[in-house]
Design brief:
Layout lengths: L4 E7 L15 E6 L2 E5 L7 H7 L9 E3 L5 H4 L2 H7 L4 E4 L8 E2 L7 E2 L4 H9 L4 E3 L4 E4 L2 E3 L14 E2 L16 E5 L2 E6 L6 H11 L5 E7 L7 H14 L3 E5 L3 H11 L3 E3 L6 E4 L1
Parallel strand pairs: 3-4, 4-5, 5-8, 13-14, 14-15, 15-16
Antiparallel strand pairs: 1-2, 1-17, 2-3, 6-7, 6-11, 9-10, 10-12, 12-13
Helix pairs in contact: 3-4, 5-6, 6-7
The chain binds fe (ii) ion (2 copies).
Amino acid sequence: MTDRVRLTVLADNEVCRPGLTAEHGLSVLVETGGGVVLFDTGQGRGLAGNAEALGVNLGQVHAIVVSHGHYDHTGGLATVLEQNPPARLFLHPAAVKPKFAKSDAPPHREIGMPESCRKAVFAAGERVVWNREPAEIVPGVHVTGEIPRHAPPAAGRFFLDEECRRPDPFVDEQALWIETAEGLIVLTGCAHAGLPATLDDCRRLSGGRPVAAVFGGFHLSNATNEELEAAAEALERAGAQVIGACHCTGGRGRDFLRRRISGQILDAGCGARWEWP
Ligand SMILES: [Fe+2]
Ligand SMILES: [Fe+2]
């Protein structure tokens, strides 16, 4: 349990105030009484400048968490590891494997961790925690490790090989959850394992506590009506009252959630900041 929590969005597809750089990506700084955690690092183009503009010292981060190996979550890793030699890094071993997005015709697009960041991860040696299992990062702040899926991955556009034959099962996807007196605060990277499975896993790992707030990418940009409905239902079932739907949630996903659920949907672009209590 942690007493106070502050979240600051350092990278997102949109900005909430002038002077910040938008990019397709996600990075959120989590400050609690237990420590400072950086959840994802965006593409790396905006992170350092945005942090400076927002008065955030990346050198004070105690731990970095990678939600999954896509470039738009891992591209700032080399910068952060260099600026912050003591910080530990939590990521799944599959996060450093190649990843591809299927194009209409080959060549398909490589979308994994940039090579410079992969090198920085391997050079970080014992600072790296290769976690497949749940872990407590700093007191009261946890990662899920591998998220049990509700269903096998649907035929999508993400693959593990250059020929786009082996669908990416996203075993590397993990969410972050924070224990507070009001309930859990959950952060998702892209929620490739599905928002319902992600929220269920956080609740299971916390011993069934309700979810107070959810932030991050919900991967609803190209979702079917069934997927949109399942995401809304999962947020309602979990009890989430505050929802920062950003990054790959997309405008359509956010509009749907605004119409469909009772919780408050925040504008969660780069520069947004929330504090509990
Ligand atoms: Fe993403
Ligand atoms: Fe992703």
